[in-house]
Amino acid sequence: MPPLRMxxxxxxxxxxAYVLLAGVLFFxxxxxxxxxxxxxxxxxxxxxxxxxxxxxxxxTVDGETLHGWxxxxxxxxxxxxxxxxxxxxxxxxxxxxxxFHRLHYNTFIFDYRxxxxxxxxxxxxxxYRDAQAAWEYLTKKxxxxxxxxxxxxxxxxxxxxxxxAVRERPALLVLASVFTSIPDMGAKLYPFLPVRxxxxxxxxxxxxxxxxxxxxxxxxxxxxxxxxxxxxQALYEAAPHPKQFLELQGGHNNGFIFMRKEWADALDEFIRxxxx
Length: 276
Prior knowledge:
AB_hydrolase_1; Rossmann fold; 42% helix; 2 domains
């Protein structure tokens, strides 16, 4: 085969492979973002950590049923509304629940649609509806005052929490290992593809923060192997005052564990300073 012909065939194959890869990225984005089947079943409950709790079921405006736990703390000074990341379920966040209990904060933690024992399948609009349903459960069913609620989001949960913080008036917003947006993350992971054109998801935490009026606490690790440290810094820069940045240690999924006491002390001080 002549060299030019071989080169032409190679170029055609490369273009086809590129288009196929772009197509996979476009049509299967949800599978790249959500991992509800990673530890799908509830592994443990707060009782296994020595904590009393109330199982909760809440309904969303579009008919899904969300499963969660309300974990009361003795002499509680506030309530944490917890938004977990894109993998696993509420039973994989017991370290957080135990920490907040020790610090005397109630915790309401729930699974998004399609996660754990919640019904449905995850989507970006769906997670926002889930967040609104969780907020209404605390403020209407439990009569919790908004200025006693702390929104806490880890990773993807931070984008959901920031979205809610724009629409409601929580006492403060906490972002742990959170990205600026899905297109920003996609551009980092697939720099050779036009991700910003292909993305069907936003989860634009950075944009939300520009409209948040509550105090903001941002925690991120320079060793985060999934979400770049620079994205955590960008979120902090965009946040309103008062705000605080805590530099963690360790990777994306273990930064909290590697800095447990420092994390708890710094977070507790910031919350107590800003609970109105």
